[in-house]
Write a structure and sequence with these properties.
With about 550 residues, the protein is mainly β. It is built from no helices and 43 strands.
Length: about 550
Amino acid sequence: MLVQANPDLVAFVDITTEGTPKPPTNVVAESPIHGYDVNLTWEDPTEDLAGNAILIDSIVIYRNEDRIASVNAGIQYFHDTEAYYSRVLTYSLVAWSDGNKSILASSNSIAPSSIFFDNFNSDLSKWEITNNGICPWELLPANFYQLPSTATGYCLAADADDCGSGTNINTIATMIDFIDLRPYGDHAYLYMEFDSDWEALDEDDYGYVEISSNGTDWEPILVYNSVDVRNEHVEIYITHSMGYVPKLKIRFRTVMPGWDWHWAIDNVIIDISYYPSSEPRNLVAIAHQHPYLHVVLTWDEYNRNQEGFEIYRRESGSEKKEDYNLIGFAELNATTFTDTSVLPLKEYEYRIRAKLLGGINYSYYSFPTTVITPIPVELTSFEAQAAKAGVFLKWSTATETNNSGFDVEKSINNSDFISIGFVEGMGTRTEITNYSFEDKSVSTGTVYYRLKQIDFDGSFEYSNTIEVDLNVILEYSLEQNYPNPFNPATKINYQIPEDGFVQLIIYDVLGNEVAVLVNEKKIPGIYEVDFDASNITSGVYLYSLRVNHFVQTNKMVILK
């Protein structure tokens, strides 16, 4: 292809690059009436720029220049649920094939949820132009003016310079069709926004945005004067002084008798909003671990006509809006929601929005709130040992969070429990912690024990219940190991009726010490000890129990 931008320079550019895919085609963005979501469709390219058949790997999707998604080839559809973040949207697609990318393919501009939208890129068919001066409203390139970046292509402009230093006493652009408010009830507000560049000459210059319920009587809702307002995105909630009306029209009117002035407008959006700036307020998230790990969300009472609330969550640290997931719904007029799908030691970020009455609109999102879920109090063991002096309880935890302590509860029928003592917890820690409690108020029969673990915030959780038979009378005894003979392991049981320093030692037949199994103070109870003789040769051995005044020795046989 021959490219000649300057008569003195000639260059040849190869634009038929093999392997570089052609851009996607028929890119269309559509949104349901009054819906925030956008459905995007397109056709994947099947050729490279040289006309050769090609296979596409993926399509990358941009919304107003921000990358939002990547989809595999062949899908040719994307549902954008985050479209509410920007009212005027244009989507761009790039095809990728084997590391090569196409040029951008752009969709039509769209304003999700709106009942009226005009970006002035085609014609003025939605407007009636009335001109009482030299310079009428007309379509002019948006890049002629200082407009927000969303203004592209053409815009609606009344420009004296474009008319050749003309003047304009009264130029008006009026919507041709009324906006029908009847389907939305008397609680609906008309919401309007547009891009604007107002440049005046002197105090005689004015610009008006006006509304009317009959097309004859007009009320200003925005007035520009001699102060320039450049590069502005205008947002207006229209509250009509006449109260509820079934229909409305909007018009733009300029009164600018000077010669060096203009007013440029683009991306006019009109929508129904039930209440302005109506996001739920003061969202708070609090994590709990009893009776199970969960997060409770609360927010202020929402005095709006709504059908309920949508609850969104993502793990903290992500900066992508699309990482929010819809996790549940709260009912009409709710002020709380419980999330039971959380995991321990995670930081979550929540936000909510109200679904407004009629189901056609939503509030803005609340400000997000974060919470870190705790490590639960993990009880690894809980056991009891009976003795003549009472019952000795002991338990251990692997981790604790906000652990105030344990209520020790007792029952004689495994139904009606009473508290018999309290053992303070260790607060928050990730190390193994051992606890004990002695119940001296015992008699006979069977008793039951459980622990009530209590957090500092008052929440609690019960442990499993254990059973103790107090009819068993303890005495000093050393039972025969089992199995015997054995290879290589056996069990040795003994019991003691009172506190004492216990030694359980293995000897050979010559009296030499082979292994020390127990060498510590023990409370009354029945004990079982495992003995592994993997590193000991076959033969006859002795095992001896010494505690207080009691000594007993038994024989065992290792047979390999």
